[in-house]
């Protein structure tokens, strides 16, 4: 088991406040400890990868950060401020948006409507509202262009889109609301080579625009090509965190399988 404070990790640069600072998070389900004093940092303007085998605790940690689960112990700081997430809306209010593997898009609605789903722009009182479609389309086009996310049209229905384009809609919806931290759970799963490349370009572009991105992935080549830092979970324990440039794919895999680095 990992003892709190003993995980090898690259230091946070002097003068930099982590966008996301996770400290000694514990999450239990009955008698099972899914997360055991897990700590990690995600810096602004960087892609941070979170890796680990199935059952390592990655999804549980993401659900704690997105407000779906509440930790039993530990602290979550956003931009240096302590936060408590009783539900997903509290996480979003703090500036965290999550793109889950299940994209939660509505196939029968167009791109713009999906980007504003649940946050529609309206005219008039609540009971007699009219949607401001033109404004939503204009804003959707602006967000897509800002982050280099290509779509046939903001009026295209989601059912007409490819898997990569659907992922692009989900990402645009996440970043279009002023979020500073984006959590992405396996965004390239089930995508072809070309679409995977486009999504990774988008992920990298988010960081270049100052956002903090936490990328959950099983693909070590992708992790090494797109991330600035990598954290490794094993059996609910955070066994290592390091700058990606200071490690190798072989070492990351060794940490995942044994909990120890190469000697």
UniProtKB/TrEMBL annotation:
User: Per the record's keyword annotation, is ATP-binding included, yes or no?
Assistant: yes
According to the UniProt entry, its GO molecular function terms are:
ATP binding; ATP hydrolysis activity
Q: Which domain of life is it from?
A: Bacteria
Show the CDD domains listed in the entry. ABC_Carb_Monos_I
Specify the ABC transporter domain's residue ranges. 20-260
Kindly give the Pfam families that the UniProt entry links to this protein: ABC_tran
Keywords assigned: ATP-binding, Nucleotide-binding
For whether the record's keyword set contains Ligase, the answer is no
Q: Which SUPFAM superfamilies match?
A: P-loop containing nucleoside triphosphate hydrolases (SSF52540)
* Family matches, as InterPro entries: AAA+_ATPase, ABC_carbohydrate_import_ATPase, ABC_transporter-like_ATP-bd, P-loop_NTPase
Q: What is the protein name for this chain?
A: Sugar ABC transporter ATP-binding protein
- Please report the organism this UniProt entry assigns to the protein: Streptomyces ferrugineus
Q: What is the lineage of its organism?
A: Bacteria, Bacillati, Actinomycetota, Actinomycetes, Kitasatosporales
């Amino acid at each position: 088991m990992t003892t709190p404070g003993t995980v090898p990790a690259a230091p946070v640069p002097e003068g930099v406040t982590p966008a996301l600072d996770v400290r000694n998070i514990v999450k239990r389900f009955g008698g099972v400890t899914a997360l055991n004093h897990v700590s990690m940092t995600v810096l602004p303007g960087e892609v941070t990868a979170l890796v680990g085998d199935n059952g390592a605790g990655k999804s549980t940690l993401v659900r704690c950060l997105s407000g779906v689960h509440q930790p039993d112990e530990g602290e979550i700081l956003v931009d240096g401020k302590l936060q408590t997430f009783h539900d997903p809306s509290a996480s979003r209010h703090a500036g965290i948006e999550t793109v889950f593997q299940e994209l939660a898009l509505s196939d029968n609605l167009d791109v713009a409507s999906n980007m504003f789903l649940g946050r529609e722009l309206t005219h008039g009182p609540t009971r007699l509202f009219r949607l401001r479609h033109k404004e939503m389309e204009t804003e959707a086009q602006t967000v897509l262009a800002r982050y280099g996310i290509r779509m046939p049209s903001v009026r295209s229905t989601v059912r007409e889109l490819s898997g990569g384009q659907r992922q692009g809609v989900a990402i645009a919806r996440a970043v279009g609301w002023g979020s500073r931290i984006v959590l992405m759970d396996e965004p390239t799963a089930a995508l072809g080579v070309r679409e995977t490349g486009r999504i990774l370009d988008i992920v990298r572009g988010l960081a270049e625009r100052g956002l903090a991105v936490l990328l959950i992935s099983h693909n070590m080549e992708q992790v090494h090509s797109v991330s600035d830092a990598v954290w490794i979970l094993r059996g609910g324990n955070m066994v290592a965190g390091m700058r990606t440039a200071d490690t190798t794919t072989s070492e990351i895999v060794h940490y995942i399988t044994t909990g120890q680095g190469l000697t």
